[in-house]
Amino acid sequence: MVFRTLYRTVLAPDHTRVLPRALGRWRLPAFAALIIYAFVWAVVTSVAYVRQSDSDGWWVAIFLATLGPYALLIRSPLLAWRLAVPGFYLVSVLMDGEGAAASQYWTAPPLFVAVAAFYSRGIVIAATVLSTALIALSEPQAADMAFFVPIIAAVVYLLGARGRAERELEEERDAKAALEERARIAREMHDVVAHHMSMVVVRCETAPYRIKGLNEEAEREFAEVGDAAREAITDMQRLLGVLRTNGEAPQREPQPGISRIPELARPGDEAEVDVDDVPEAVGLTAYRVVQEALTNATRHAPGSRASVRVHKSGGQLDVVVTNTAGGPSRGGGSGQGLIGMRERVAVHGGTLTVKSTEDGGFLVRARIPLGDK
């Protein structure tokens, strides 16, 4: 457990990106302020070194060691702290005396505070121990500074507890929403597959009456195929019962397809569907992509006009939804809609492109392989 915590603190990849998410719209101003703060102390520390020693070129290393970690702070506070540790020791070795190195100490607190505020208790404890030991070993006269490190860590960790709890709750909600969306996709695909399997059963059962001259062995083969298809439908219905949430009524209406895409268009929108002969599952996916894209346009660009184009292109179904710039976003989106679209398209081996347009609007494009119908 201890070694795992040390590994996570010192060596393991870190992709949390907690600082950008926590600061929101204040991310860039806060980052600029931190860079200015680090730049000032990098200059102060470098000047102190030059005054203390001859200009032998090491001042450049001191400047970069002081400023460099802050460039990573917006990417990952933990990575910034890792870079700051050897840099801190380098500056302490090059600069003799507590007074000469005092200015360099002021660059460490923001990095350490970011780690203490956003990471787990184990990582905070490990970083605290390592930071305290580093200060004590690099500058024995700075014992009072080392004494305050655990106190600062404890205070900041407690203050950040609520933020960590909110982030964990948000991650759990995102995971739950993703699972619910996948279950919904599975239920819809069940309806499509069940329809095809029912057709297999009907054709197998009616084969002896439709095809003259079938021998006994062929009739038995058709009967076995029909029985297997019927069992598959039963198994899928059991699976659907597991996927359906408590109290959710079974879907009675047929799943929408490509022919119903024009019904999704809002007043003022354009919808052009140049194809109607596609596999049922592909048509359902195209319908859901258009539905989600228009919903996002209504939510994030109220008053905008949208254009829907659906056509075949090189063995693929090309679904393109664009909308013009609109009014201020109403917010409320969780991002799960885009994830759901990508997963639906990926089921068929297709691709989804989502990007802004030059006129301030938005474009959603799905390319879905048609395969053999």
From TrEMBL:
<keyword id="KW-0597">Phosphoprotein</keyword>
<keyword id="KW-1133">Transmembrane helix</keyword>
<feature type="domain" description="Histidine kinase/HSP90-like ATPase">
    <location>
        <begin position="281"/>
        <end position="372"/>
    </location>
</feature>
<dbReference type="GO" id="GO:0000155">
    <property type="term" value="F:phosphorelay sensor kinase activity"/>
</dbReference>
<dbReference type="GO" id="GO:0016020">
    <property type="term" value="C:membrane"/>
</dbReference>
<feature type="transmembrane region" description="Helical">
    <location>
        <begin position="79"/>
        <end position="99"/>
    </location>
</feature>
<feature type="transmembrane region" description="Helical">
    <location>
        <begin position="28"/>
        <end position="50"/>
    </location>
</feature>
<dbReference type="Pfam" id="PF02518">
    <property type="entry name" value="HATPase_c"/>
</dbReference>
<dbReference type="InterPro" id="IPR050482">
    <property type="entry name" value="Sensor_HK_TwoCompSys"/>
</dbReference>
<keyword id="KW-0547">Nucleotide-binding</keyword>
<dbReference type="InterPro" id="IPR036890">
    <property type="entry name" value="HATPase_C_sf"/>
</dbReference>
<dbReference type="GO" id="GO:0046983">
    <property type="term" value="F:protein dimerization activity"/>
</dbReference>
<dbReference type="Pfam" id="PF07730">
    <property type="entry name" value="HisKA_3"/>
</dbReference>
<feature type="coiled-coil region">
    <location>
        <begin position="162"/>
        <end position="189"/>
    </location>
</feature>
<keyword id="KW-0175">Coiled coil</keyword>
<keyword id="KW-0067">ATP-binding</keyword>
<feature type="transmembrane region" description="Helical">
    <location>
        <begin position="111"/>
        <end position="136"/>
    </location>
</feature>
<keyword id="KW-0472">Membrane</keyword>
<keyword id="KW-0902">Two-component regulatory system</keyword>
<protein>
    <recommendedName>
        <fullName>histidine kinase</fullName>
        <ecNumber>2.7.13.3</ecNumber>
    </recommendedName>
</protein>
<keyword id="KW-0808">Transferase</keyword>
<keyword id="KW-0812">Transmembrane</keyword>
<feature type="transmembrane region" description="Helical">
    <location>
        <begin position="57"/>
        <end position="73"/>
    </location>
</feature>
<dbReference type="InterPro" id="IPR003594">
    <property type="entry name" value="HATPase_dom"/>
</dbReference>
<keyword id="KW-0418">Kinase</keyword>
<dbReference type="GO" id="GO:0005524">
    <property type="term" value="F:ATP binding"/>
</dbReference>
<dbReference type="InterPro" id="IPR011712">
    <property type="entry name" value="Sig_transdc_His_kin_sub3_dim/P"/>
</dbReference>
<feature type="transmembrane region" description="Helical">
    <location>
        <begin position="142"/>
        <end position="160"/>
    </location>
</feature>
